[in-house]
Structures are given as structure tokens and as C-alpha cells.
Design a protein that fits this description.
single chain; 17 strands; globular; seven-stranded mixed sheet; alpha/beta; binds iron/sulfur cluster; Rossmann fold; five-stranded parallel sheet; TIM Barrel
């Protein structure tokens, strides 16, 4: 069976240019894992990197026209309500007979499969959850010419106007999966992405990781030896020295998770590589971070989320502010300045919550680096289907969804003064992100003297936030004209300071 797997082009509007929750990083190897499994089953598989290779739909069309696959599998990424180009393309592919069957997979379609099957007639089926096993079953039944039987993990129309979806169990033993296939485009990234575990034992209300994997063991791991075998293969084939564990939660729960991390550290150390991970703050322990750093750990993303215990409880983060601060201390002691996840604006935030968050960030030296400052001072909670927050706000009648897709919801801020500050910071930081896009994405080389300019803009952002917050606390209400004036003035300052960088 001839199968083409497509990473489709992604278009992100300027208003959402820095909203990263549309697809988690841990999904970046879904196509590679599906390809590995399909190859193992004897199928002919090609991968088209529409996103990383910057292909247009016309260029992808030409590839499809040559290959004419039996199955076109698309890793579908949420497009902030703008899927129309992709759906239109798939309609054309189907109507011109360029692919006999179209199936889609990924976080977004897993959660919104009914919506997608209703809106996109060209899509024949949706892989719900991990794609390896349902994809192998789908390709197997198609190669035997059988009428498509119900397949666990595959949602499809039932022929009588409904949709049938048979649940699948997550893969029990991840060591039994073939290693993911990596394209040249993936090897061009600054680090080679790896997946050492799947899922998370946390239950944060804003996160849909566990809805993707479905019920079963919430955190599953590969053995350290299996991970090292994959890394050794990449080192010998590509000479790679930089890796990134895209696991949503590198450490498993409790002491077992820590022991596994120590074992990984001991195996990695003689290989002289560098790597990054993502983790929960309660899993950061001196005794384990030390050996990981000695083994090559160079950067880490930790989800602090808030500087207030009540907010952490509201998000069901199962961590405390004290744990946040302890994790920062331990990492810094070992020379690691972490990247942090932080939700400044929740739908139920009060000005007091925002003030406490602001002071937490200041106290912990998290407002000194422009890219961190810009992120932590504007992040608001994104509400996607499949999360507890979405469910809860909908039940309360506070969630609005658009006519084109119910996947993303909007819950208005309970307090207008919080909405005003969130609005100012979103507009101001969007101007900055657009201006810095070339530099932060590595497409443009930083001009001399840029660092001093960043410090200046950093101070200015902190000041705009602090001044606006103080004014709101003092009872001032920002109407549309006032907001527009603050944004305009700040824009003038940002573009003035960053003239040498942004031109
Ligand atoms: S810690 Fe929370 S946000 Fe992070 S992966 Fe786990 S559930 Fe999701």
C-alpha cells in the first residue's frame, strides 16, 4: 500500500502569532511514529514536510499528482479557526482522485473528530489518539481490499448519517514501537526531537494532553536503554550532538520517575551530548538535576503558571508557589536559567491576582530577559476543547464558540479592569513579537548593539504593565480610546528603540 503522510502548511494570523497551544510540541513526532509503524508492516511511505519545508498547496499538489497514494494521512494542526485552505485543498485532492482515502490524525482532530467529519466531506476517517495502531489496521484492511471494518481508534461516518468511533487503549509498552522516521527537515532543526515518554500524571484544567491519549495509564515511559539505542543510532548516522525531549513531562511520578531520570543521566553522560526537557516543578530535585546537568542537560521548560496558590489550585496544578520558587533556585544553582510557562490572565483573575503574579515575577528575577518578559506579561489562558476548563466554563454558560468550529472557546474576563490590562498587553506584545519574528526564529542575524536595545524594550514593557496595573488599581477605567492611545504610544517607542533590529 502506498501512503503519503503530510505535515500541512501552517498559517498563523498576526493576532495569534505567539499563541503556542494550538498543538503541543510532543505531537511533532506523530507523523514519524506513524511512518515507522507503517514501514514495519511493509507499506511504502513518503512524508511531505509542507510546514518545515515551506511548501505551498500547489507544490504539495504536484507531489501528490506524481505519487498518487492509496492513503493520504494528514497531521492536522489547529489553525485558530482558519482551516479553510486545508479543507479546500483536501476537497480538490479527493474530487480529482489524487488519493483514494484521506485520513487525519493529531491532537486537534482527536478531540474535534465529529466537527471535522461534519465539516470536511473529503476526510474519510480520523485517528482518535495515538495513530500507530489504527493507521496500521487501516492500511492493512485497505490492502486486503476488505470493506472497512470497525477499527479501534478510528472514527468514520457510519453510512446512516452518524459517526462511529471505537475507542482504543493507549500502547502498553512503548519500547515495542519502531523508532520514528525523521525527515531531513526535522534534522535541520537546531535539536533532534525525541519522545521518551507519553502523557502526564498531572491534571491541569487548561491542558488536553490526557484527553488525547485517552483513559489508561496517564504517564507511560520508554526504558532508558530503548531511548539510548535510538540516540546512538542518530549519533552514528547524523553525528547529532543536540537533542530535545518533547515529553510533556520528562519525569514520571515519585521516586521511580526520579530513578529513571538518574538512569538516563548515567547512560547519556559518556555520549557527550546536550539536551533539553520539560517538567513539572514538583519533580525538580537537587539530587537528580545535578547528574542530569553533568550528563548534558542545558535547558528546561517548567510550568510555573502562577505566583498565587489560589490560582494554582484553581488550575488544579497540584503544585505550590513555594515549589515554584524552590525549582527556580535548584535550576539556577546548577547553572540553568529555565524557560517558564506562566498564565498571567485567567478568566476569573482579579487585579489582586495580577498584582501578586507581577510581584512573584519581579521577586524571582523573571522580568529581565525580553523574550521571557514579553511572554509572561501577556499570556492568557487559551481554552481548547478536551480540557477541564472548557468543560467547566461551558457548563457555567460562560463559553462562546464560533460558528466555524467549537474547538476553541472564549470566556470573557469576569472583571472589565482585568480585560483592559489583558487587551493592552496582548496588543503591545503582538507588535513586539511581529517585530522580533525574524530574529527569534533565527531567520535574521542579530545586528551589533541589539542586546542593549532589548534591555531598553524590556524595561519599557515592565513599566507599561506596572503603570497600567497601578492606574487600574487606583480606579481608572481604560475605555477604547485610552487603550488605543497607550498601545499607539508604546508601539512608537518599541519601533523607535528597535529600529536597527526591525527594519
Ligand atoms: S503538568 Fe499539567 S500542563 Fe503540564 S503536561 Fe501535565 S497536565 Fe499538562
Amino acid at each position: 500500500m502506498k501512503i503519503l503522510l503530510l505535515e500541512h502548511p501552517r498559517s498563523i494570523t498576526p493576532e495569534r502569532c505567539n499563541d503556542i497551544a494550538n498543538t503541543p510540541l510532543s505531537s511533532c513526532l506523530l507523523t514519524g511514529y506513524a511512518a515507522g509503524m507503517l514501514k514495519r508492516k511493509g507499506h511504502e511511505v513518503d512524508i511531505v514536510e509542507g510546514y518545515l519545508d515551506g511548501l505551498t498547496y500547489e507544490e504539495i499538489w504536484n507531489i501528490l499528482d506524481v505519487l498518487k497514494p492509496d492513503i493520504l494521512g494528514v497531521h492536522m494542526v489547529y489553525h485558530w479557526k482558519t482551516d479553510l485552505a486545508l479543507f479546500g485543498f483536501l476537497e480538490r485532492v479527493k474530487s480529482e482522485g489524487l488519493a483514494s482515502t484521506i485520513t487525519v490524525y493529531g491532537f486537534y482532530p482527536t478531540i474535534a473528530f465529529e466537527d471535522i467529519l461534519k465539516r470536511a466531506p473529503a476526510v474519510d476517517s480520523v485517528m482518535v489518539g495515538e495513530p500507530e495502531m489504527p493507521f496500521a489496521d487501516l492500511a492493512g484492511s485497505a490492502s486486503h481490499g476488505a470493506h472497512l471494518p470497525p477499527i479501534p481508534g478510528l472514527a468514520a461516518r457510519d453510512g446512516s448519517g452518524g459517526i462511529r468511533c471505537l475507542k482504543q487503549r493507549p500502547v502498553d509498552d512503548l519500547d515495542l514501537l519502531p523508532f520514528p522516521v525523521r525527515t531531513e527537515a526535522l534534522y535541520r532543526l537546531p535539536e533532534v526531537n525525541l519522545l521518551g515518554s507519553r502523557g502526564c500524571y498531572g491534571r491541569c484544567t487548561f491542558c488536553s494532553i490526557n484527553s488525547f491519549y485517552g483513559p489508561g495509564s496517564p504517564w507511560r515511559w520508554r526504558s532508558p536503554e530503548n531511548i539510548i539505542e535510538e540516540i546512538d543510532g542518530i549519533i552514528s548516522e547524523k553525528g547529532a550532538t543536540d537533542f530535545y525531549f518533547t515529553d510533556p513531562n520528562f519525569f514520571g511520578p515519585g521516586w521511580r520517575g526520579q530513578e529513571r531520570a538518574l538512569r538516563i543521566a548515567s547512560l547519556l553522560k559518556p555520549r557527550n551530548i546536550r539536551f533539553g526537557i520539560e517538567a513539572r516543578v514538583n519533580d525538580i530535585h537537587d539530587e537528580v538535576i545535578g547528574p542530569l546537568v553533568e550528563a548534558g542537560l542545558r535547558h528546561i521548560l517548567i510550568g510555573l503558571e502562577s505566583g498565587k496558590d489560589d490560582s494554582l489550585r484553581r488550575m488544579n496544578k497540584m503544585t505550590t508557589v513555594a515549589q515554584n520558587e524552590r525549582a527556580l533556585r535548584i535550576l539556577r544553582k546548577h547553572g540553568i536559567e529555565p524557560n517558564v510557562g506562566f498564565i498571567m490572565f485567567e478568566p476569573d483573575s482579579s487585579l489582586e491576582d495580577i498584582r501578586i503574579n507581577f510581584e512573584f515575577l519581579r521577586r524571582n528575577d523573571l522580568l529581565k530577559n525580553l523574550s521571557v518578559t514579553a511572554n509572561v506579561l501577556y499570556h492568557h489562558q487559551i481554552i481548547l476543547e478536551g480540557t477541564e476548563a472548557y468543560h467547566h466554563l461551558r457548563k457555567e454558560g460562560r463559553l462562546e464558540t464560533g460558528p466555524s468550529s467549537s474547538y476553541e472557546g472564549t470566556a470573557y474576563f469576569r472583571l472589565p479592569e482585568v480585560a483592559a490590562l489583558a487587551n493592552i498587553m496582548r496588543q503591545v506584545t503582538n507588535i513586539l513579537f511581529t517585530c522580533m519574528e525574524g530574529i527569534w526564529s533565527g531567520k535574521i542575524i542579530e545586528p551589533p548593539g541589539a542586546r542593549e536595545k532589548y534591555s531598553e524594550v524590556n524595561r519599557m514593557l515592565v513599566k507599561v504593565f506596572g503603570d497600567s496595573l497601578r492606574a487600574l488599581e487606583g480606579g481608572e477605567r481604560f475605555d477604547e480610546a485610552q487603550t488605543a492611545s497607550v498601545v499607539r504610544e508604546t508601539e512608537k517607542e518599541i519601533t523607535g528603540i528597535l529600529e536597527i533590529v526591525c527594519r
